[in-house]
Automatic annotation (TrEMBL):
TM regions (residue ranges): none
Keyword Coiled coil: yes
UniProt keyword Cell cycle present: no
Family annotation (InterPro entries): PsdUridine_synth_cat_dom_sf, PsdUridine_synth_TruA, PsdUridine_synth_TruA_a/b_dom, PsdUridine_synth_TruA_C, Pus3-like, TruA/RsuA/RluB/E/F_N
Pseudouridine synthase I TruA alpha/beta domain boundaries: 233-342
Pfam families the record matches: PseudoU_synth_1
This protein's GO CC annotations: cytoplasm; nucleus
Keywords: Coiled coil, Isomerase, tRNA processing
Residue ranges of coiled coil: 12-46
GO MF entry, a single one: pseudouridine synthase activity
Entry's family note: Belongs to the tRNA pseudouridine synthase TruA family.
Gene: LOC108840052
Source organism: Raphanus sativus
Protein's UniProt name: Uncharacterized protein LOC108840052 isoform X2
Length: 415
């Protein structure tokens, strides 16, 4: 009786041993298969770079080379065979002619749509926008500019294995693509890439941002800067800003935001004795039209139409549960200056940096020439004797509307 049992146990033990051996062999084969696939992918990527990347991504004449390479570009390379890396791009744009940053509103042109046109034209984009894991830091409105917007996405790379945190600019002894220079050759003059940085795979341009800084430029005229500075300091801290924004009930359920810095300061620029000044505001995040609403109320305080205490009244949502009606400040002087992140260091090649300086200097001189033309037209259109009368009339009209707005705000506050 014991012999069959012993043979049965030995048989079961043998089967288990063989199964374990087979499992280990399967794992070994899977590992070998993965290595072979990686080698094949690397070979395909190298062939693809020779056939496709050089004619397009060369920093020479992008348009001429891309036309010459159209016939060779007909053969589509599968996206899974293309090497790519996750990067953050620092973007500058002059927003006057754009319908905002986002392309989702389907109003053209937008900054985002122009950027993706350049990405597709240079073949840096792998797949489409959905495949790129794209994110943006701020969604600036129509007319708003930026000197430090940040986006993140996967771009074509010379890196053969996926990486999100490598800081090396050279891959296998070869320099990484000069993303700044390549993209700037394909972008319009009022959009520029200022730098790029390798980013970790869990990086998100919006949610990884620790602080955003905005500046709003304005002419001093007869504004009371001291009162405006005192009033602006009341914004610092954590407050419910529902009375200082455009309500977005569908997407926003909490209107509490933290402002960490506020300052009113003069700039170096002046014109005909009038000093250019700026509001500087920094916070973790801002609501839709929040900056422009804050500036609008500060302008009324600077004109003497409202007192400094109106800020406290509007921030107290129990006393003021409904937003009073008042006009927003103009969008043109508003600039998103910086977006701050931890462990993200933007880089730019010396050649690309020199091209940026030359471009910005040229654009600045162009805008100054346009300003001179408008000043010349002003001298020719308005007789000298009527200038003061016209200015006085404009000032009275401006003050009249401010008084009306103030009265409307007071009525709304009482109700």
């Amino acid at each position: 009786m014991t012999m069959p049992c012993g043979n049965g146990l030995d048989s079961e033990s043998t089967v288990e041993t063989e199964l374990a051996s087979l499992r280990n062999r399967v794992k070994e084969l899977e590992a070998e298969n993965a290595k072979l696939l990686l080698q094949v992918s690397s070979c395909q990527c190298q062939q693809m770079e020779v056939k496709h990347d050089v004619p397009v991504l060369d920093s020479g004449n992008l348009v001429r080379r891309s036309r010459r390479g159209r016939k060779r570009a007909d053969k589509v390379i599968p996206t899974h065979l293309i090497s790519k890396r996750f990067v953050a791009l620092k973007i500058m744009y002059f927003g006057k002619r754009f319908y905002g940053f986002s392309a989702e509103a389907q109003m053209e042109p937008s900054i985002e749509s122009e950027i993706f046109k350049a990405l597709e034209r240079t073949r840096l984009l792998v797949g489409d926008k959905k495949d790129s894991n794209y994110s943006r830091c701020g969604r600036t409105d129509r007319g708003v500019s930026s000197t430090g917007q940040v986006i993140a996405l996967f771009l074509r790379s010379r890196l053969k294995t996926p990486s999100g945190d490598s800081e090396a600019q050279k891959i296998n002894g070869r320099p990484e693509y000069d993303y700044v220079r390549v993209l700037n050759r394909a972008l319009p003059d009022d959009i520029r890439v200022l730098g790029w940085s390798p980013a970790p795979l869990d990086f998100h341009a919006r949610f990884s941002c620790s602080a955003r800084e905005y500046k709003y430029f304005f002419w001093r005229q007869d504004l009371n800067l001291s009162a405006m500075d005192i009033a602006g300091k009341k914004f610092i801290g954590e407050h419910d800003f529902r009375n200082f924004c455009k309500m977005d009930v569908a997407n926003v359920h909490c209107y509490t935001r933290r402002v960490t810095f506020f300052e009113v300061s003069p700039c170096q620029n002046s014109h005909e004795g009038d000093q250019l000044c700026t509001f500087t505001m920094r916070g973790s995040a801002f609501l839709w039209h929040q900056i422009r609403a804050m500036v609008a109320v500060l302008f009324m305080i600077g004109q003497g139409v409202e007192s400094v205490d109106v800020i406290d009244t509007l921030l107290d949502t129990k006393k003021t549960p409904r937003k009073p009606q008042y006009l927003l400040a103009s969008e043109i002087p508003l600039v998103l200056c910086t977006c701050e992140f931890e462990n993200v260091n933007f880089i730019c090649s010396s050649g690309a940096a020199e091209s940026l300086r030359s471009h910005f200097k040229k654009e600045s001189l162009t805008y100054q020439l346009e300003s001179v033309i408008f000043q010349e037209a002003l001298r020719n259109c308005l007789p000298i004797g009527n200038v003061k009368k016209r200015r006085r009339k404009q000032q009275y009209t401006f003050l009249y509307y401010l008084v009306l707005l103030s009265l409307r705000m007071k009525n709304d506050l009482r109700n």
